[in-house]
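Q: I'm teaching a short session on how sequence maps to structure, and I want students to see two examples side by side rather than one. Could you give me a first protein with its sequence written out and its structure tokens following it? Keep the formatting plain so it prints cleanly on a handout.
A: Of course. Example one:
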Amino acid sequence: MTYETIRRPLHPQVQAFIDEADPRRPKLYELEPAAARAQAAGVAALIGPGPAVAAVRDVGIPAGDATIPARIYRPDESQGTIVWFHGGGWVIGGLDTHDAMCRTLANAAHCTVVSVAYRLAPEHPFPAPLDDAWAALLWTSAEYPSAPLVVGGDSAGGNLAAVCALRCRDRGGPALALQVLVYPVTDHDLATASYIERRGEDALLSSRSMTWFWDQYVPDPADRANPEVSPLRAPDLSGLPAAVVVTAEYDPLRDEGRAYAQRLQDAGVTVTAYHYQDMAHPFFAFVNVFERSNEAVGRVAERIRAAVTAAAPVASLPQRT
């Protein structure tokens, strides 16, 4: 798998967004989690409303002793089901921060989208967010048994989606038509070239913020090599569903996303990789704000439509030994 090596400057819309930010605004890593969540909540107002869909409803999904909120978006014509896990470093973000993107995706992919508000760290560290994501995927499979099923997420949500795909393989299903990994967290290595490049504050996500997120989600560094935390460390990636992997140049997660896409391909998995040379983390959710965000959602939706159309009737996968 090859990538363009000539770096482009940040897209003017992203650069203007960064330049216009209030320099007095605290950095995420300077805040307590509750304050960081309040700051992130302002993103939803900034992005604005997404397009209308045929129906939207909020539900509660049982996950062990908890009930986790989810929001279901149904377009006029639904040919499959997407379970989406939002980004935010397992600490911030939720249904509202990704509402516009999920609406856009539902309409463009012609699929019902189930957006999942898994419990957040540090109150609920690993494995609680992952177990919530897994429970939501199982619930959705039972609710929509005849629809081809796609799992996806951005950033920390991409991490959860990747691990859920591994669980589907190893636990006998549910069968997945596709996994969509948007600048996913796939490893705990904080010394990659892309992490080093983002040590400053000149993009929308810094290495220091990612370090803070890791400290909330998996406080003990010794636990971070677990493949259910760092799926890039999984010994075997064969037998997984086809993948769409989206990466951005100005992103500390760039290199691990590329590495995961390469390992999937090397294991025989069909991979469609989109790398945005002029974009920064977390551009995919910024529909209405960055034109390239809508373009990226549209490209991913096109691949989802193709996968859903080609999907065979859903059947349980054999248990791996």
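Q: Perfect. Now a second example for contrast.
A: Example two:
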Amino acid sequence: MRSFSPSLRLRVAAGFALLGLAVSLALGGWLHFASRDLANRLIDQALSAELEDYRARLSRNPGSLPPMTATLRGYVTLPQDAAPDVPGALLDLPEGRFSLHLDGIAYRVAVRPEAGRTLYMLHDRTQVDDREERFAVFLVVGIVLSTLLAAAGGWWLAGRVIAPVRQLAAQVRDRDAADLSAPLSARLTTDEVGDLTRTFDRYLARLRAFVERERAFAADASHELRTPLAVIQGTVEVLEADDRLDQRTRDRVRRIGRASKGMADLIAALLTLSRESRGAGGTPPLCPVAEVLREAVELHRPLLRHKPVAMALEVTGDVQLAVERPLLAIALGNLIRNACTYTERGTITVRLDTDAVSVTDTGPGIPAAELRCLFEHNECGRTVRGVGIGLPLVKRIADRQGWEISVDSQPGRGATFRLQFHPAPASPQG
């Protein structure tokens, strides 16, 4: 299963969002604890002032009653009080400042013992707690908004930063593969992306020179090789028409003819594969697969002349493909040649269905470790099917045409190569 990989812009926006969230949480937490500590300090100062005021009044009038308002409550205990009028939760408190709940109400309490008596001063925190809750909600909303703003800013900034990269990617994506001359850096800035683009342009210049050399070589090789091949094929036709040749010599001439025809098809296939796209020369005419397959089977039967191997052809479907005939001939011929080369006894069955060609042999089979690199241009530790361009060339042709090549094999029991293709739609009869 393909793993999800977020875009660079999304990752930058997520990074900004996380940074904004972290800063907002740190600042919001500090503000929350600072406001709570400040509220406690203010309440403690108010309680200290009330205690001093009440202590002063007691010194002038020992019968003075403690304050009792909506937010402030005071108590005093004397040694001679057997049952003081003080909530029981206060009696065990030592000197200092405390927070506790009485009858479901939160209080801040100040306790001061002096001169045989203990003074208690309570401040109702209900209003303070309500304000702190509202402030906490305000902080949460601020944290969420800050995170969203940071994410939006990161998204906008990332878009500005990677815009040249996206422009460069669009130029490369929309560019024709044959166009290697127009520079990519014509409309880009002089920043780091511009430096990267100019590096690409220098690389394209070197690649253009390489492609020109390869193109010239392919054209020259095609011309220089086709001329002697045409001479060879013409000579073969003349020799085959000579009645004075004995059968042995005629077989040798036919072998030369088969080899020259195979070489001509191989050159045509390699030149076709060297083009960038299938549509470079227009859509090829429909090619009858059964006809090409029969030619390939008969072309390779002489390889089994001195082997106890029988090769059978089974055609169960009439298939026509929009493919250059040399490409199809080389693909089918390489599969059949591979089976003929590595089968020492038994049978080779070539079967044409409505959507595939399969070649089954009774050869040595292919080890599982070699299957993964069977169609690659390297030795890769192959010991049974050897090395060469045969099977890799079939894979190149299949990839170019949109076909699929597969192999099913068990060591010691042979192998089955299957070329799966997509038949061209039948043309209307007129």
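Q: What should students look for in example two?
A: Point them to this: The domain at 284-420 is CATH 3.30.565.10 (Heat Shock Protein 90). Also worth mentioning: The radius of gyration is 46 Å.
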